[in-house]
C-alpha cells in the first residue's frame, strides 16, 4: 500500500507542477489554481461570522449554526461579505473595511436606557428581553444618535436610488369626496297656478307643456260667477260712494268690497279699474305669477275648474338642485357650504360649481348612503331634470395644518412611520399620528415638526436598510450575551 501512496503523491506533484507551468505561460485559470487556493480558503476561519443564512436564499437567518427543513446547513455570512453594515452596525467601506460610527464615544460610558433589538419603538430603563428572547440593546450617553433610531446610507446609494425629500409645512388639506347624483327641480322655484273659486276656461293662451312664460303674461281666460258677483258689489259701492253716513264708513265699505276681490286672487290693477270706472267685465285674463317653464298643464279649453285645482305648474330652471348619494363613511367630511363640482354626462368638459345647502337627516338602508343637496346655477338651461351627475366635494377645513406628502408615510397596518432626513445621508424612522388626507398630503398630528425634511421617494429602500441594521445589531448583541 505504501508504494501505491507514493505513486499517487508523485503523480499529484507532477500535475501541480504542470498546471503551474501552464498558467505562467498562458495566464489562464486551471486545476492548479483550485488546488493552490485551498490554503487561502482555509484562512476564512480567521474571519468573523456575523450570522447564518438559509441555503435556499429564503429570507431566514440565525445567530447560530442550524439546519433547514431538508437537513442542509445554514450558510455563514462573514464580516467582509456584508454589503451594508458590519457586525456592530458600522457602515462598511469598499474592500471590506469597517467604518466606525461617527458618534461613537470612547472611555467610560453611562447607560441611558435599553432599546428593542429589532428596531421597534420600544425602550426600557432596565435590562429586559423581547418576546423572542433577545436582550434589549443598551444605549450609552453620548451615542443617542447611534441608538438604532437612525440609519446612514452612502451618498452614492442615495443618488442611485433616487431618494427625494420635502419639508413638512402648513397646508390647507382638501379631501375630495366623490359621489353620484341626479339633477332635480329647485323646490323653492316651483309655482302652482290655481283659482280660489269655481270657473270655466274659455280660452288658453298657454296650451303646451314646456312653454316658457314670464311673470304677468296671461295664461288663460276664465269666467267665474263668484268673481263677477264680487265685481258687481264693488262697482255699485263705487258709484254710490259707499254705505254709511260718514265718509269714513263709506270708504270702509268700498275697501271691504275690494278686499273680497283680493281674496279671490283678482289682480290689483283689475280691482282699481273697477273702482275707478265701474266696468264689469264678464271674464278675466289670469296672469302668470312667475317666470319659468310650464312643466304641468292640467286643463284644456272649455274645462270647468274647481277652487284649489292645479291648472299649471311652473318651474324656474335658472337654478337647480343636484341630489347626491354620499357614503356613510364620508359624511363627516361634509358640511353646509362645502363646495362641489358637478359634471353631467352630456357635458363632460363643462363642470359646474355649486355648494352644499342641506344634508338630509336620514340614510337609505339599502345602500347606506345619505342624500346631500347641492344648489347649482343653470342660466343657460344645460342641466336637465333627472340627468345623472358625477359630484366631487372639496371637503376639508380651511385652517392650515402641518402636513407631509402621502408618499412619505410607510404604513405597515399597525403603525405609520416617516423617514426624517438628518443630513449627511442619515435618516431617522419616526412613528407619526395621522389625521385628514387629501390632495396627496396627510395631516401630521404628532411625530414631526414644521420645517423637518421627510423622504418622499425610495422610502422602502431606506426602511429595509434600517431593518437590516437592527437585525444585525440584534444578532451581535445575542452573540455577545452568550
Task: Please characterize this protein's 3D structure.
This protein is an alpha+beta fold and about 475 residues long. Helix content is about 25%, strand content about 35%. The chain has a six-stranded antiparallel beta barrel with strand order 12-21-24-23-22-25. The radius of gyration is 45 Å and the shape is rod-shaped. The chain starts with a helix and ends with a helix.
In short:
The chain is of the alpha+beta class and 482 residues long.
Mean pLDDT: 78
Largest sheet descriptor: 6 strands, antiparallel, barrel
- Which percent band covers the strand fraction? 25-35%
Number of individual domains: 5
Helix run count: 7
The rounded Rg comes to 45 Å
Shape: rod-shaped
Q: Assign the structural class, choosing from mainly alpha, mainly beta, alpha/beta, alpha+beta, or little secondary structure.
A: alpha+beta
Widest sheet, order of strands: 12-21-24-23-22-25
Distance between the termini: 49 Å
Instruction: List segments where confidence is low: pLDDT < 50 over at least 5 consecutive residues.
Output: 1-44, 82-102, 471-482
The helix content, as a percent range, equals 10-25%
- Please tally the β strands and state the result: 32
Task: Summarize the SSE layout with pairings.
Layout (H helix, E strand, L loop, with lengths): L1 H25 L4 H12 L6 E5 L7 E2 L12 E4 L12 E2 L5 E2 L11 E5 L7 E2 L12 E4 L10 E2 L2 H7 L2 E4 L1 E3 L3 E11 L4 E5 L4 E6 L7 E2 L4 E6 L1 H16 L6 H17 L4 H10 L6 E4 L4 E6 L6 E2 L4 E6 L3 E9 L11 E6 L7 E13 L4 E9 L10 E8 L5 E5 L3 E3 L4 E8 L2 E6 L1 E6 L2 E6 L6 E5 L1 H22 L2
Helix pairs in contact: 1-2, 4-5, 4-6, 5-6
Amino acid at each position: 500500500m505504501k508504494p501505491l501512496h507514493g505513486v499517487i503523491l508523485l503523480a499529484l506533484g507532477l500535475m501541480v507542477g504542470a498546471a503551474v507551468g501552464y498558467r505562467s505561460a498562458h495566464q489562464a485559470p486551471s486545476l492548479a489554481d483550485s488546488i493552490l487556493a485551498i490554503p487561502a480558503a482555509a484562512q476564512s476561519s480567521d474571519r468573523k461570522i456575523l450570522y447564518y443564512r438559509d441555503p435556499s436564499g429564503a429570507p431566514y437567518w440565525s445567530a447560530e449554526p442550524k439546519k433547514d427543513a431538508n437537513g442542509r446547513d445554514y450558510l455563514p455570512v462573514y464580516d467582509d461579505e456584508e454589503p451594508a453594515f458590519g457586525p456592530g452596525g458600522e457602515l462598511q467601506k469598499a474592500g471590506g473595511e469597517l467604518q466606525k460610527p461617527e458618534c461613537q464615544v470612547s472611555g467610560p460610558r453611562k447607560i441611558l436606557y435599553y432599546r428593542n433589538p429589532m428596531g421597534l419603538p420600544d425602550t426600557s430603563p432596565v435590562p429586559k428581553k423581547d418576546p423572542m428572547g433577545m436582550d434589549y440593546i443598551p444605549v450609552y450617553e453620548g451615542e443617542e444618535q447611534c441608538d438604532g433610531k437612525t440609519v446612514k446610507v452612502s451618498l452614492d446609494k442615495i443618488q442611485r436610488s433616487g431618494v427625494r425629500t420635502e419639508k413638512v409645512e402648513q397646508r390647507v388639506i382638501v379631501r375630495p369626496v366623490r359621489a353620484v347624483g341626479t339633477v332635480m327641480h329647485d323646490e323653492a322655484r316651483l309655482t302652482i297656478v290655481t283659482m280660489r273659486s269655481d270657473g270655466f276656461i274659455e280660452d288658453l293662451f298657454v296650451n303646451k307643456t314646456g312653454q316658457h312664460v314670464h311673470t304677468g303674461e296671461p295664461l288663460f281666460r276664465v269666467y267665474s260667477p263668484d268673481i263677477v258677483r264680487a265685481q258687481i258689489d264693488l262697482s255699485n259701492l263705487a258709484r254710490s260712494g259707499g254705505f254709511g253716513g260718514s265718509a269714513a264708513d263709506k270708504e270702509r265699505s268700498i275697501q271691504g268690497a275690494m278686499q273680497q276681490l283680493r281674496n279671490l286672487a283678482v289682480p290689483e290693477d283689475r280691482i282699481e279699474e273697477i273702482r275707478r270706472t265701474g266696468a264689469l267685465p264678464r271674464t278675466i285674463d289670469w296672469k302668470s305669477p312667475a317666470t319659468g317653464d310650464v312643466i304641468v298643464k292640467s286643463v284644456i279649453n272649455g274645462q270647468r275648474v274647481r277652487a284649489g285645482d292645479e291648472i299649471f305648474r311652473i318651474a324656474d330652471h335658472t337654478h337647480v338642485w343636484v341630489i347626491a348619494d354620499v357614503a356613510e363613511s364620508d359624511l363627516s367630511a361634509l358640511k353646509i357650504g362645502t363646495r362641489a363640482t358637478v359634471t353631467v354626462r352630456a357635458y363632460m368638459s363643462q363642470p359646474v360649481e355649486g355648494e352644499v345647502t342641506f344634508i338630509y337627516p336620514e340614510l337609505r338602508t339599502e345602500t347606506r348612503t345619505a342624500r346631500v343637496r347641492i344648489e347649482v346655477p343653470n342660466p343657460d338651461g344645460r342641466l336637465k331634470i333627472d340627468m345623472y351627475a358625477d359630484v366631487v366635494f372639496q371637503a376639508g377645513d380651511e385652517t392650515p395644518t402641518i402636513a407631509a406628502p402621502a408618499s412619505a408615510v410607510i404604513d405597515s397596518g399597525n403603525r405609520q412611520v416617516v423617514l426624517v432626513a438628518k443630513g449627511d445621508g442619515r435618516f431617522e424612522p419616526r412613528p407619526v399620528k395621522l389625521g385628514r388626507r387629501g390632495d396627496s398630503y396627510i395631516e401630521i398630528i404628532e411625530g414631526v415638526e414644521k420645517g423637518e425634511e421627510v423622504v418622499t421617494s425610495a422610502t422602502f429602500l431606506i426602511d429595509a436598510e434600517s431593518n437590516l441594521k437592527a437585525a444585525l445589531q440584534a444578532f451581535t448583541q445575542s452573540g455577545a450575551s452568550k
